[in-house]
């Protein structure tokens, strides 16, 4: 049996009906849905490649849109955390520095994934017909499948701990669920 009393108490701090919280959930769920739908559409039709004149230009454009959407998602996440109460027992140096360390590890995974894959490898170039010569197996792919997704999730987890935010923890769970679904869909 799992004792869920602590989780119930923790999430008693979260107003899931708050407009900012709902917008954050929607932006978190929208991003992987958007890029998977657009990438599959491109793969079937090559419409973006035709519109932009080349697969590379189309991939770079989609990558730019994804980056903007990620900024919007992070902004919504942060605003939702700020509008909800902190967990006072976690508003201390130990939790802050633990969150900072988790965010640093997440950032390491995201940046090293990007460096290993390059821009087109990161932003769905394979759907545009831009293929890498070999499967990337170097760090961080040597330790973790989908390190960019889990690194991003770790950044949000760390950010939530740094802000002692139960709402942030719940939103981080939404990020993890969204990425899990994306991985199943992409696989």
From TrEMBL:
> Any idea of its EC number?
2.1.1.17, 2.1.1.71
Catalytic activity from the UniProt record: 1-hexadecanoyl-2-(4Z,7Z,10Z,13Z,16Z,19Z-docosahexaenoyl)-sn-glycero-3-phosphoethanolamine + S-adenosyl-L-methionine = 1-hexadecanoyl-2-(4Z,7Z,10Z,13Z,16Z,19Z-docosahexaenoyl)-sn-glycero-3-phospho-N-methylethanolamine + S-adenosyl-L-homocysteine + H(+); 1,2-di-(9Z,12Z-octadecadienoyl)-sn-glycero-3-phosphoethanolamine + S-adenosyl-L-methionine = 1,2-di-(9Z,12Z-octadecadienoyl)-sn-glycero-3-phospho-N-methylethanolamine + S-adenosyl-L-homocysteine + H(+); 1,2-di-(9Z,12Z-octadecadienoyl)-sn-glycero-3-phospho-N-methylethanolamine + S-adenosyl-L-methionine = 1,2-di-(9Z,12Z-octadecadienoyl)-sn-glycero-3-phospho-N,N-dimethylethanolamine + S-adenosyl-L-homocysteine + H(+); 1,2-di-(9Z-octadecenoyl)-sn-glycero-3-phospho-N-methylethanolamine + S-adenosyl-L-methionine = 1,2-di-(9Z-octadecenoyl)-sn-glycero-3-phospho-N,N-dimethylethanolamine + S-adenosyl-L-homocysteine + H(+)
Gene3D superfamilies (UniProt xref): 1.20.120.1630
> What is the name attached to this protein's record?
Phosphatidylethanolamine N-methyltransferase
Signal peptide bounds: none
Q: Which InterPro entries match?
A: PEMT/MFAP, Phopholipid_MeTrfase
Q: Which gene encodes it?
A: Pemt
Q: Which principal EC class is assigned to this enzyme?
A: transferase
